[in-house]
């Protein structure tokens, strides 16, 4: 499998797996989100395995696409990154988020990159949506603003303690902007 084929395979999987899904903030096709995360990471020349994982980072968590098929198509390294950024939705919210933070912390640079790319795009979406809809923005989420911001601040703290990268600085700016929203 050539490197270019790895990313193309990931795109094909994401398009099929997320085909009926939409973003909760703006109603756009969901697949635009993982593709945007991948584009953010491409700017920093992350390896193709990290880019492929970014494209498919929500497939295990949010679709019925089989884990074995992901491994077969994209390889063990990509699957390992995906698993590092996948939440166990059977757990209650706070425990799920605490486990996610720990999993990302232990995951290494590939997991850090995909996670922070995801968090950055999500934060940008929240800020953009808030610009159009104001305080109603927070009603789009399963938890209120204070709990969402707790998670973002904990993620930021973990990144700051473990990774020196321009994406961490970008994320900090966005977390600060979200905290300032009504």
Compose a concise summary of this entry.
By secondary structure, this protein is mainly alpha-helical.
Defining key terms:
single chain, 10 helices, Hypothetical protein af1432, 70% helix, 182 residues, mainly alpha
Walk me through this protein's architecture.
- This protein is mainly α and 182 residues long.
- The chain is 70% helix and 0% strand.
- It has 10 helices and no strands.
- Helix 3 (48-55) crosses helix 6 and helix 5 crosses helix 6 (76-84).
- 32% of the residues are buried.
- The mean pLDDT is 94.
Provide the β-strand percentage band. Answer: under 5%
Gap between N and C termini, in Å?
A: 49 Å
Instruction: Give the number of helices.
Output: 10
CATH superfamily: Hypothetical protein af1432
Biggest sheet: strands, sense, closure? none
Can you give the mean pLDDT? 94
Class inferred from helices and paired strands? mainly alpha
The shape is: globular
Number of strands: 0
Spans of at least 5 consecutive residues whose pLDDT stays below 50 are: none
**Percent range of helical residues:** over 70%
Number of domains: 1
């Amino acid at each position: 499998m050539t490197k270019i084929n790895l990313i193309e395979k990931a795109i094909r999987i994401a398009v099929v797996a997320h085909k009926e899904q939409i973003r909760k903030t703006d109603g756009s096709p969901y697949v635009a989100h993982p593709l945007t995360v991948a584009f953010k990471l491409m700017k920093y020349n992350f390896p193709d395995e990290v880019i492929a994982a970014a494209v498919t980072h929500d497939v295990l968590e949010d679709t019925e696409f089989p884990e074995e098929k992901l491994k077969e198509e994209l390889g063990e390294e990509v699957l390992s990154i995906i698993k590092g950024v996948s939440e166990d939705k059977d757990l209650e919210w706070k425990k799920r988020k605490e486990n996610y933070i720990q999993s990302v912390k232990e995951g290494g640079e590939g997991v850090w990159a995909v996670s922070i790319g995801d968090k950055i795009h999500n934060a940008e979406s929240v800020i953009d949506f808030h610009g159009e809809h104001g305080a109603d923005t927070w009603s789009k989420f399963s938890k209120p603003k204070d709990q969402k911001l707790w998670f973002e601040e904990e993620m930021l703290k973990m990144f700051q303690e473990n990774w020196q990268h321009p994406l961490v600085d970008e994320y900090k700016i966005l977390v600060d902007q979200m905290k300032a929203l009504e």
